[in-house]
Write the structure tokens for this entry.
Amino acid sequence: MDYIIIAEAYGKIDGTTKRLEMTDYLVELLKKTPKEVISKVIYLTQGKLYPDFVGVEMGVAEKLAIRALMRATGNSENSIQAELQRRGDIGETAEKLLSKRKQSTFFTKPLTVQRVYETLDKLAKTSGSGAVDTKMGLFSGLLTDASPQEAKWLIRTVTGNLRIGIADMTVLDALAIAYGGGKEAREKIERAYNISSDLGRVASVVAEKGIEGIEQFQVRVGEPIRPMLAERLGVPEEILEKFGGKCLAEYKYDGERIQAHKNGDTVLLFSRRLENISDQYPDVMELIRIQIDAKDAILEAECVAIDLESGDMRPFQELMHRRRKYGIQTAITQYPVSLFTFDVLYVNGTDLTQKSLPQRRQTLERIIKQNIRLKPASQQLVKTSKQLEDFFEKAIEEGCEGLMCKSVGDDSVYQAGNRGWLWIKYKRDYKSEMSDTVDLVVVGAFHGRGKRAGAYGALLLATYNPEKDTFETVTKCGTGFTDKDLSQLYEMLQTHVIAHKNARVQSTLEADVWFEPAVVLEILGAEVTLSPIHMAAMDSIRKNSGMAIRFPRFTGKYRTDKSPQDATTSKEIVEMYKGQLKKIGELLP
Ligand code: ATP
């Protein structure tokens, strides 16, 4: 397959802001793709070479790309820089320069997807001394044989600037249409994705074996399962009602979620965002290796900083010292951690995700050798709101955030990749007004004035709507930022600037600058109100009204552990609004 087919499809996708059109173009591309290279095409379309959990990045800086461009076109650095200044985009610069190149077509070989992929793969895996020159040589080789249009997308790909907005959900829709016989197949394909986090593998299975292949799709140790998430409620009676009168209340530990994969003596650890964080926690790997009594297993736990002498839990901030690349051994002794396991998803060849929670818990207790460093999460079966409140107080006293209340019904399966009512979180904050924080995605910004000239004056923030896979604006926030935050945010957001509103962003406001949804910030608001301007949960409470957060303030917490799809959902904002109304109702005579 020639790379030009991909380049042409990117051009079309980039030219539309409509989700449906985008999906159609992707379907068109998939239909032209031979089965053998489908996984490569899927990764490339998302600007990657592998699924995220593999952790391979192309890591080509703009400077290096410019050197490759110099070699491939014969232009001087100054003239390339001047063109870049004019266009403001490295891809378009490459396209322009290559179109002016006098080239003998006798010696160029057409670029195939295979060759592009293999070269980029080699480039990504080159390290050590002389790596920069090797990378430059590899990349300029591709540029030499590229057409202007191909060069534009190649250079955007290697510098991490593809930005055509193909989200996971769009890929799933396109796969269902192209290979599953229609949109109805989407659910099954999504399940395969949720248990493997690997869109490339899912694509090649559905392309080669169809929906029957997808139905046979298996959990594999080493491939992270997308985490199950919880809804939230602030009233114990309502929680119990949701569960039909009884539920399992578990401590909600305040630490970092870890999904541990054990295969014999090999252990891998994944973060909530499914990044491989094994190197950060050699001590945790050792715990899993020694204290999990199973040949292979996948389990989930909250990793919490702990005082080893008293066994007391330490605050979340202490665990943050463990997020580092260097000095890991010192950090292990300075900031020891314990693991509180709360689920098991796979043991000795058996997928447990479709088993009920009580069955999974039984297995969990059977395979862990407990001590102060590794324990199952504290839990209690509760049937009254008094029991729930009492257990909640106990959890808080011991340093937890609150409770995770979980269904114990026959249908209490592990809903990979979903936020649903089988788990409900109950935190202290929900008991007062809207003093709970939300995690919002930065989708746009407004220029600053006066003291903030040159930085952003306010950010346009959005919630996530998983049903529609859209980001819906919910507030404009300009408070809570220190000077350091302002410059740091500016830097962070620069790499995500896009020319027009992202197709998945719903907004009636016109921002000065638009971003692809990427950065998630923790925000504290005063209350949730109905809003004619903001788009969050539009029409769900009242026709033509969305929801807004009033008096938002940045708490200082960058939620780098969350992807934009992990942000607070529009539905959660509706629940918060209803919770508020209830509170007001209680206060009225
Ligand atoms: P928050 O922003 O409130 O921390 P979240 O959005 O990261 O939550 P939720 O699904 O809303 O994710 O809350 C569940 C999180 O709570 C899990 O991701 C996990 O890290 C943590 N947690 C702590 N104890 C438990 C437990 N016993 N069971 C499940 N999750 C737990």
About this structure: The longest helix spans residues 570-587. The mean pLDDT is 91.
